[in-house]
Amino acid sequence: MTTRVGVVTFPGSLDDRDAARAVKLAGAEPVALWHGDKDLRQVDAVILPGGFSYGDYLRCGAIARFSPVMETIVEQARAGLPVLGICNGFQVLCESHLLPGALTRNDHLHFICRDQRLRVENADTAWTADFAAGQEITVPLKNGEGGYVADERTLDELEAEGRVVFRYLDVNPNGSRRDIAGITNAAGNVVGLMPHPEHAVEALTGPTTDGLGFFTSVLRKLVA
Amino acid sequence: MSPTSHARPQLDTVKHAAETPDTPLPWAELGLKQDEYERITQILDRRPTGAELAMYSVMWSEHCSYKSSKVHLRQFGEKAPASDALLVGIGENAGVVDVGQGYAVTFKVESHNHPSYIEPYQGAATGVGGIVRDILAMGARPVAVMDPLRFGAADHPDTHRVLPGVVAGIGGYGNCLGLPNIGGEVVFDSCYQGNPLVNALCVGVMRHEDIHLAKATGPGNRVILYGARTGGDGIGGVSVLASETFDDSGKPAKRPAVQVGDPFQEKLLIECTLEIFAEGLVAGIQDLGGAGLSCATSELASAGSGGMRIDLDTVPLRDASLSPEEILMSESQERMCAVVTPENEARFLEICAKWDVIATVIGEVTEGDRLEIFWRGEQIVDVPPRTVAHEGPVYQRPFARPDWQDALQADDAGALPRPRTADELRAQVLRLVGSPNQADKSWITDQYDRYVLGNTVLAQPEDGGMIRIDEDTNLGVALATDGNGRYAKLDPYAGAQLALAEAYRNVAATGARPLAVTDCLNFGSPEDPAVMWQFAEATRGLADACQTLGTPVTGGNVSLYNQTGEVAIHPTPVVGVLGVIDDVTRRTPMAFTEPGQLIYLLGDTAEEFGGSAWSQVVHDHLGGRPPRVDLAAERLLAEILIAASRDGMVDAAHDLSDGGLIQAVTESCVRGGLGARLVVPDGLDPFTFLFSESTARAVVAVPRSEETRFTDMCVARSQPVTRIGVIDGDAIELQGRFAIPLAELREAGERTLRALFA
Amino acid sequence: MLKPEILDPQGQAVQRALPRLGFEGVADVRQGKRFELELAGPVDEAALERVREMARTFLANTVIEDFRVRVAEEVEEEGVGR
Amino acid sequence: MLKPEILDPQGQAVQRALPRLGFEGVADVRQGKRFELELAGPVDEAALERVREMARTFLANTVIEDFRVRVAEEVEEEGVGR
Ligand SMILES: Nc1ncnc2c1ncn2[C@@H]1O[C@H](COP(=O)(O)OP(=O)(O)O)[C@@H](O)[C@H]1O
Ligand SMILES: [Mg+2]
Prior knowledge:
The complex is a heterotetramer, with one copy of chain A, one copy of chain B and two copies of chain C.
Chain A: E1 4-9, H1 16-25, E2 29-34, E3 45-48, H2 68-78, E4 83-86, H3 88-95, E5 102-104, E6 112-120, E7 136-143, E8 147-149, H4 152-160, E9 164-168, E10 180-184, E11 190-193, H5 212-223
Parallel strand pairs in A: 1-2, 1-3, 3-4, 4-11
Antiparallel strand pairs in A: 5-8, 6-7, 6-9, 9-10, 10-11
Chain B: H1 14-19, H2 34-44, H3 50-59, H4 62-65, H5 70-78, E1 86-88, E2 95-100, E3 103-111, H6 113-118, H7 120-137, E4 141-151, H8 157-177, E5 181-188, E6 197-207, E7 222-227, H9 237-241, H10 263-278, E8 284-287, H11 292-303, E9 308-311, H12 324-329, E10 335-340, H13 342-354, E11 359-365, E12 371-375, E13 378-383, H14 385-389, H15 405-410, H16 422-434, H17 442-445, E14 456-458, E15 465-468, E16 476-482, H18 485-490, H19 492-509, E17 513-522, H20 529-549, E18 553-559, E19 563-564, E20 567-568, E21 572-581, E22 598-602, H21 613-619, H22 631-646, E23 652-655, H23 660-672, E24 676-678, H24 686-691, E25 698-702, H25 707-716, E26 721-727, E27 731-734, E28 738-741, H26 742-757
Parallel strand pairs in B: 4-5, 9-12, 17-18, 24-27
Antiparallel strand pairs in B: 1-2, 2-3, 3-6, 4-6, 7-10, 7-11, 8-10, 9-11, 12-13, 14-15, 15-16, 16-21, 17-21, 19-20, 22-25, 22-26, 23-25, 24-26, 27-28
Helix pairs in contact in B: 5-20, 7-8, 7-10, 8-10, 10-13, 16-26, 19-20, 19-22
Chain C: H1 9-20, E1 26-39, H2 45-59
The structure holds adenosine-5'-diphosphate and magnesium ion.
GO molecular function (chain A): ATP binding; glutaminase activity; phosphoribosylformylglycinamidine synthase activity
Keywords (chain A): ATP-binding, Cytoplasm, Glutamine amidotransferase, Hydrolase, Ligase, Nucleotide-binding, Purine biosynthesis
Active site (chain A): 87 (nucleophile), 196, 198
């Protein structure tokens, strides 16, 4: 039985096809999920892809959070369903309070697209098990509102519990507190990050193939 | 100046117009000339109604009717080289090219110059939106955008208002649509100070059978308007903004000349339209751009059988106070108009509802050949649509070679003082590399998403952008745009050919075979005979060169009146070339990445400095003649580059253009993170070797194992080839003269735009 | 705030979302920016004139936006938005 | 408005630009959003309570933002921003 990984399309999602391609290259079956549908079609994991859901009007991810599909995802994520939020997906996870904190306008106020070096700080989550803790990877980053903020107490808590999953190396591209690029929930099944692993799955089109590890991780986790 | 503000208490119906032949109408304020107005009254055999006048005035504007340029543009068709690749030629929303395996590609470049000067962010954003809808209307899925840009002097305060806004607008719209930006241009020159050029290109892909044309046939078929609601945006924008030199008088009060884009709405429009295409639900389709509904209805009807009836009351409005004339002229963005058979109507509306896109049946195709429009039950328009859309005025504008042209060409750049010592040479290399036009553009291009859709094989700063279009077969296309206004100023005929030659060369450098051309012709006022001469020469030059290179022009755009007072911009033909590559994994990137590989120069180098970057940067000089055009040499070079890519004989290639050899080598070295040792070939002096801008040249990196095979091929085909050095170390060294550390070159190139704009 | 005749995609997106969230009865939503300025000196007429100038030339894009200047919690000022 | 303890890069960029434009004496700038809602029915206490709820759950992200609800030109309302 092949593993089914759902990829949600909100109005304004952009990297949904890329995420589906990455899932396929990792050996799983991508399943398209529609924002207006509460049904998760029996998927084993869910990806909230990048893009500008609802134009990112109001705040990034703020309107998408209230879509029917998110009701089910929030519920099942609390019950352990692996969920990966990439960029806009990360913003949706924060707005949905599945992850703490918020993402704000980049400190330099510009959209930025660059190949970004990251350190994998936590290789125990559902989406990072195929990496080694401390491993350095390079994947594209592209966002206008990627500055991770949370109050000091939350930040300390994240650090103490090992819930900072990725940290920016070389440059902090958006003013994120403590160079945080991605975090996880306490259970380790929900991961959100600003950079785009789905754009680093083929040597032809990506700066590296480091991104594949995300998608193979969840596969291994689910088969195990 | 809105038609309603004239004292016309009663609705100006067709009947009323016939009864009141003497009512004065504001045709002059709407940009019509006396004889044009008289022609309208002849066509209709009465005075036009206000609504009809609105339609004719926008559709007969320079922007929509191409009245000054038409007689010259005809050459693109007349001289078009025989090409099996052309599926749809000039005249449709965009041309369509066969790229094999059942795929067709459509691409086009368009200008949004004037709006971007007034409101840089929205002007540029809606420029992207407009060109994307053109491509969509052909039946294609848009897959990438490019943005050739020209600004005033880099250090001028107004450039600091315009550039960041334009870049943010292009990024804001394109990124939000999910279209990778794969290339473009950034050129600074004070001639663009009051007239920045914001051109936008979009490319789309479809299957052959999916090509859609903009025509309305089949009486009883529904005319459906879908997308955003209609507001007062850009009313008069087409005629006032795009066709006349700026002046503040006569803009309608409370009717914004500026259109605001909503990329999210456009994204929904794209997905919704593609789903509609996939189910085969449209008989004809047209995007709404300049001239809004006036344009869409009259063009659809004119290209079809001619008859159409529209009930304007059904148009969903954002502003209930709009008059019927204003609804017809509104340029609200993110709208499309489709012709749909009655059987398909329900499904069409259902798909729109799924995507949250408002869709309304606003009329139907009728028997006969009149476009009739009704408002509150009364007829306000009754016209033969061809006279609005396709039979507008045509001008034979007078043109004359300007009297200063001879003096300009006589002011030979070859006479400028040249660097005498190795130190001077070194210093000038650094100045060149750090000058705004040659400098690294990543401060700009980093604001664009180049990864989205996951098919970007090459993007800036590569010579051409490359997109994979089939993930199984690895079929792909490459695109480059170029245009050098300095060359074109010195000689518009040659300048246009050089623009084509450069874009063609850039595409070939990636390993793709050039197939077809789009162009955006940016010029000053056609009412100035000197400008008109530049235009005539440039179009002639481009048409001739396209014929020689076998690459037909498939479509494009003309932007006139780019001038402030009496002073026109440099004539700036921007040329986009599309190429095809059967296997994108064989692409040739520009970076030098293997120490020890040999660097070869392909092509001949002569002393050519007219219009060169060196003459601009070092001497602030523009004079003489541009580099000699040699299309046979371009063609041969392209064949060599394509063969080398296909057979794996080169690992890197980079074309030579402005800045000459040293600029190209610097870019390839910086990108690859490796230095080079260069030797001046016999018979050349170091200065000419480094800075000349002779055309039909490229540098390539050849693995040692391929050296013989590669040079044999060149010799066998009479391609000039010279070994000029080796990739090595962490500096660029000109043997016996100077060495510049790579870090210093990188820093010089990367610092400039950041220091100016960050 | 965007001028009333200018399209406000953000406001519209918010308005469209409200009924889905169970908030009915909102006839129109427009979204704009708000700046809070803290002045170093006294907020007298001269200072206010400078702030208005700032708003006109810099904070607002008067091609598409109107603005109002208001002194916090006290005076209410109508700006000259065009 | 962003909570005072949250970095406001937009406000800071504005503040940094002001002296260059010849505007001195601005000690602090913060940038936020402003929504104008037009209600279909009467603006009574029940309606206001609904609007406050809307602000708390949707218009503002109370993780990082405070908000105030105000009835245009008339009543002044302090919201419960946290
Ligand atoms: N406005 C822009 N948008 C996207 N890419 C750009 C832009 N300006 C320049 N580029 C890219 O930067 C690179 C260098 O540009 P340029 O020096 O003009 O190239 P060339 O001389 O080969 O035509 C190219 O890849 C070009 O596509
Ligand atoms: Mg090039």
